[in-house]
Amino acid sequence: MEKGLTLWFTGLSGAGKTTLNAAVCGRLSDAGFRVESLDGDEVRRHLSHGLGFSKEDRDENIRRIGYVAGLLTKHGVICLVSAISPYRAVRDEVRRSIGEFVEIYVNAPVETCEQRDVKGLYRKARSGALRGFTGVDDPYEPPAAPEVECFTDRETVNQSVDKIMEYLESRLPCQSIAVHS
């Protein structure tokens, strides 16, 4: 059985986590790997429906996502997770529990994320209509030492994906991954 791996995309809302996840997922699938994608919004809607947005509930949501990612990883799947996961301690906890874990910091300034905000969440948070919004009135703790950092305000999607794929060449049991788009 192939060795599994969790790729954990973390960053502010609107940083580009889901976009990069989808592109990397496609490349890995095209290269013949078994892949599964877990999106934070989807998981919250289905697996963590009853949780709110307190620090404790956010941590529990990340633990639940981490548990599912760990099961998939244990069974030889490359699991790609897109979740804001704002608190470093719970990300580190999930890393320890999974073991085969790659943290990808999708780094974009809050101003860039606000410009990309199709849901209007930053506007609601700035007006006070939405409280506890990460990056506005709730903290985001950047990773201390991510395996990969993508600067989506100054890299194209393909440049960021190529960076991730180049890192993965050293971690995946494959002669050649289609790195460049």
State the fourth-level CATH superfamily. P-loop containing nucleotide triphosphate hydrolases
Which oligomeric state applies?
Answer: single chain
Strand portion, in percent? 5-15%
Q: What is the fold-level CATH name, i.e. the topology?
A: Rossmann fold
Quick structural overview:
The chain has 181 residues and is α/β, with parallel strands linked by helices. It is 43% helix and 15% strand.
What does this structure look like?
This protein has 181 residues and is of the alpha/beta class. It has a single domain, classed as Rossmann fold (3-Layer(aba) Sandwich), CATH 3.40.50. The chain is built from seven helices and five strands; from the N terminus they run E-H-E-H-H-E-H-E-H-H-E-H. It has a five-stranded parallel beta sheet, with helices on both faces. Helix 1 (17-30) packs across helix 7 (157-168) and helix 3 (55-74) packs parallel to helix 4. The radius of gyration is 16 Å and the shape is globular. The model has no long low-confidence stretch (mean pLDDT 90).
